[in-house]
Amino acid sequence: MRLRRHVAALFVSAALVAVVTGAVFALRGSAPVLSLGVLYLFAVLPAAVFFGTPYAVLVAVSSMLAFNFFFLEPVHTFALRDSENWVALAVYVATAVVVGELAAWARRRATEARRREREAEFLAEVSATLLEADQVRDRLKQIATRTAEVLGLRRGRIELESFRRPEHAEAAIDLRAGRRDVGRFFYDAGEAPDAAMVERIVPPLASVLAVALDRERLARTALEAETLRRSDAIKTAVLRSVSHDLRSPLTAIRAAADGLERADLDLDAEDRAELVDAIRAEAARLERVVTNLIDLSRLEAGAVSPRPEVWSADELVARSLEPLAAAAERVVVVLPADLPVARVDAAQIERALVNLIENALKFSSSKDEVTVTVERDDGSLFIRVRDRGPGVAPTQLGRIFEPFERGAAGSTGLGLAIALGFAQANGGRIDVASRPGEGATFSLVLPLADVPAQMRA
Question: Taking the model in full, what pTM does it have?
Answer without folding.
Answer: 0.47
